Amino acid sequence: METIIRYLSHPQVQIEEAKEIHLWSLDAIGRQRVDRLVKSNALKGTTRVISSMETKAIETAQPIADALGCDLEIRALMHENDRTATGFLPQDEFEKVADAFFAHPDESVRGWETANAAQARIVRAIEKCLKTQTEGHVLIVGHGGVGTLLFCALAGIPIARKHDQGAGGGWYFEFTDAARKPMAPWRRMENL
Asked: What is the pTM of this model?
């Protein structure tokens, strides 16, 4: 049986400007979307669930792991691109900085981790996870930014925001352990 690896970004979050971004939780819509995925049985055959250590990723991954009867593996290096230099940014400003992040992958935009550095980190983290794969499929729960960088690396294409997930989070792509190439562009988690 061919192993399918799915990379799922966490869905919608509760924006809390006073909290550090890595501590943000899912909002009611995000939790409902995770609950629907859990109840859909769409991830049958998944034997490993791996998550970023950020709260929103764990809140996405834990109910899925519980429903599948899997232990949740938490990996520190799978975090979103480091944006602690700016912290919370209003949506319009965030979009402009994110555009620059993807457009200039060798440059630190306003103190953010560079796209190239974040891409190298997420690729190493995923490769390390997959070295110990057993039977069954794998679900990796993470973030849209580094997920897009992973998608570009696996597809062998330059970093570009046009390959980013859609709005709201809760998107996934999949690849096989053997081919290590995305099988399709990002799709909404409801399409699983």
From this structure: 0.96
Query: Which domain does 120 fall in, by range?
Result: 4-45+55-130+149-191
Amino acid at 12: Q
DSSP H or E run through 141: strand 137-142
Q: What is the CATH number of the domain that holds 39?
A: 3.40.50.1240
**Does some domain include residue 182?**
yes
Count how many domains the chain has: 1
**CA gap 109, 56 in Å, rounded:** 24
Q: For residue 156, what are its two tokens?
A: 């062998």
Q: Has residue 167 been placed in a domain?
A: yes
- What pLDDT, on the 0 to 100 scale, is given for residue 60? 98
Is 40 contained in some domain? yes
Below-70 pLDDT ranges, the chain: none
In contact, 103 and 161? CB cutoff 8 Å: yes
CA dihedral sign of residues 95, 98, 100, 103:
negative
Question: Mapping DSSP to helix (H, G, I), strand (E, B) and coil, where does residue 34 land?
Answer: helix
Structure tokens at 167: 């709005």
Q: What is the mean pLDDT of the chain?
A: 96
**Structural domain includes residue 141:** no
**Interval 148-163: pLDDT, tens:** 999 999 999 999 999 9
